[in-house]
Specification:
The chain is of the alpha+beta class. It contains 3 helices and 17 strands. A 7-stranded antiparallel sheet has the order 4-3-2-1-5-6-7, covered by helices on one side.
Length: 287
């Protein structure tokens, strides 16, 4: 029996130079060989900067500038993460016991965080969001005692300068099925957020868009999928033009694909040809 693990992923993007965010993720897992049973990460302004797991039992930096912090910080932070691990694993065992689950693949997850406006001094807290095997938990003592704003201010003071740079996306388009039934536009390796838009024959069409997912190196990935209707293959014209446009700040990246169709007897065939890849760093263009 296969089980799908649904991770709690927050969309934390810095909206201005005065507003900063911190989101923390806690995950306990069982039944997955070779994977740490407990993982904890800190995400500052949308970039993963700290990491801890039950195998190494040390809080470590994910960004080069974090390594310059006082070693005492890492010792103290490691002890706090070890205490969090003990508490989280205790609750995880309790949840499994309540469900009479002694083995197999299971997960317990929590995300929480805060936001600070350095201009107004106003703090904001969000979470915690909790889930067991991907199902939301509405009760249970899963909150940890810590000063989120204090930690966030420390990150603002020490590492905000090294997360300001932008990283452009690598954009690809993939075809699924034969004849094709879906087209996926995948952007990865970027920071901060991107916007993905689809066009069919120059007209904007709706596509399903995934959550923002971390790559583990401070960058993100995102995808958008559109369906190719059967009418495309029955159309009189020879091809249909699909364009994926990925906007990243003032830059944009476009990939245009032509889906060719032909019909032999009663069998419809499709051919997918990559015809155009275009990027513009000035930000001035049409569709």
């Amino acid at each position: 029996m296969w089980r799908v693990i649904v991770l709690l992923v927050g969309r934390v993007i810095q909206t201005s130079s005065d507003i900063f965010t911190l989101q923390q993720y806690y995950t306990a897992m069982s039944g997955i060989q070779g994977v740490p049973e407990y993982v904890e990460t800190d995400v500052f302004d949308g970039r993963e900067i700290c990491y801890y797991d039950s195998n190494n039992r040390r809080k470590v930096p994910r960004m080069e500038c974090m390594a310059t912090l006082d070693p005492q910080y890492w010792n103290t932070s490691t002890k706090e993460s070890q205490r969090s691990q003990q508490e989280f694993e205790r609750i995880f065992a309790l949840e499994r016991y309540k469900r009479n689950e002694t083995g197999g693949l299971h997960t317990l997850q929590m995300t929480c965080g805060c936001q600070y406006d350095s201009k107004t001094g106003k703090p904001q807290y969000f979470g915690p969001k909790k889930a067991y095997d991907g199902e939301k938990l509405t009760a249970g003592p899963l909150e940890f005692t810590y000063d989120c704003i204090k930690i966030l201010k420390m990150y603002i003071l020490n590492v905000s300068g090294c997360v300001d740079k932008t990283v452009p996306p690598d954009v690809s388009v993939f075809l699924s099925g034969f004849p094709p039934s879906t087209i996926m536009c995948h952007a990865t390796g970027f920071y901060p957020e991107v916007n993905i838009t689809w066009y069919r024959e120059g007209k904007q069409v709706h596509g399903s868009v995934s959550d923002l997912l971390p790559n583990g190196d401070g960058t993100f990935q995102k995808k958008s999928v559109i369906n190719i209707s059967a009418d495309t293959w029955r159309a009189v014209h020879l091809y249909t033009q699909y364009t994926c446009k990925v906007e990243h700040g003032t830059e944009f990246f476009k990939i245009t694909e032509y889906v060719y169709s032909c019909k032999i007897s009663d069998i419809e065939l499709g051919l997918f040809i990559h015809t155009l890849r275009f990027s513009n760093r000035s930000g001035s263009e049409g569709n």
